[in-house]
Amino acid sequence: MLQPNSMVLFPAYPNPAFRTTSLDLSLHREKFVEITLVDRLGRILRKVHHGSLAPGRHTVHINVQNLPAGLYFCVARAGGRISTVPVSVLH
Question: What mean pLDDT, rounded, does the chain reach?
Answer without folding.
Answer: 93
